[in-house]
Amino acid sequence: GQQVMQIPQYQHVQEGEDFTTYCNSSTTLSNIQWYKQRPGGHPVFLIQLVKSGEVKKQKRLTFQFGEAKKNSSLHITATQTTDVGTYFCAAYNFNKFYFGSGTKLNVKP
Amino acid sequence: GAGVSQTPSNKVTEKGKYVELRCDPISGHTALYWYRQSLGQGPEFLIYFQGTGAADDSGLPNDRFFAVRPEGSVSTLKIQRTERGDSAVYLCASSLFPSGELFFGEGSRLTVL
């Protein structure tokens, strides 16, 4: 079945440092989405990427979709304590979303 | 309107019992998904409804799990003869169309003793 690998599993950063999480699929994807889940909360949609090589920005967050549509990344510039949470990629294929295992981000003030 | 609503928020049951978890999606959303999330893991796909029909139930672990969506709106996930390994947060999500943004409910935390 579809496999979505996400690394790293954990990331601890000092406030103001940058953060990146990577998502890799074994197959070409129709689209990929990113979600953020705060501790004790539910996943909340951040962005959707559809086109090969697509780059989208939301303030300090930059999302990329690989040229082969098999990988994606989320980069946060100058992290803040409000960025704490787990970031998941979700790959859409065969009528469903496959979630990665997530990257848990901790930001020290 | 309101977001995705799930009830109960917490359910504690004994091994071997039957449980039902309910999901009320956002009005007008035809796509509805059930996911299961264990601690420290990503959501694991269970079943997808498009309208009233189960378009894909390939994620249901075994025949103890069943889900319905009789009128194309509210969905119920049913688990028979619960086992301790069924303990998890069961998340429901709805979407305006199949590949669109997923709106998640708060989840139903199931604990099987």
Please, could you describe this protein's structure?
The complex is a heterodimer of chains A (109) and B (113). By secondary structure, chain A is mainly β. Helix content of chain A is 0%, strand content 58%. In chain A, the strands form two sheets. In chain A, strands 2, 4, 5, 9, 10 and 11 form a six-stranded mixed β-sheet that branches. Chain A has a five-stranded antiparallel β-sheet with strand order 1-3-8-7-6, with no helix packed on it. Chain B is an all-beta fold. Chain B has no helices and eleven strands. In chain B, the strands form two sheets. In chain B, strands 2, 4, 5, 6, 9, 10 and 11 form a seven-stranded mixed β-sheet that branches. A four-stranded antiparallel β-sheet of chain B has the order 1-3-8-7, with no helix packed on it. The A-B interface holds A 6, 30-31, 33, 35, 41-45, 48, 88, 90, 92, 94-102 and B 33, 35, 41-45, 48, 55-56, 59, 91, 93, 98-107.
The coarse overall form of chain B would be: globular
- Would you list the SSEs of chain B in sequence order as H and E? EEEEEEEEEEE
Q: How many DSSP-defined strands of chain A? A: 11
How can the largest sheet of chain A be summarized? 6 strands, mixed
Give the amount of beta strand of chain A, in percent.
over 45%
Structural class of chain A: mainly beta
Instruction: Tell me the structural class of chain B.
Output: mainly beta
- Mean pLDDT of chain B comes to 95
- Rg of chain A over CA atoms, rounded to whole Å, is 13 Å
Shape of chain A: globular
- Biggest sheet statistics of chain B: 7 strands, mixed
Q: Mean pLDDT score of chain A, rounded? A: 95
- Count of extended strands of chain B: 11
Distance between the termini of chain A: 41 Å
Bin the helical content of chain A.
under 10%
Elements of chain A, N to C (H/E)? EEEEEEEEEEE
Separation of the first and last Cα atoms of chain B: 37 Å
Chain pair sharing the greatest interface: A-B, 23 and 23 residues
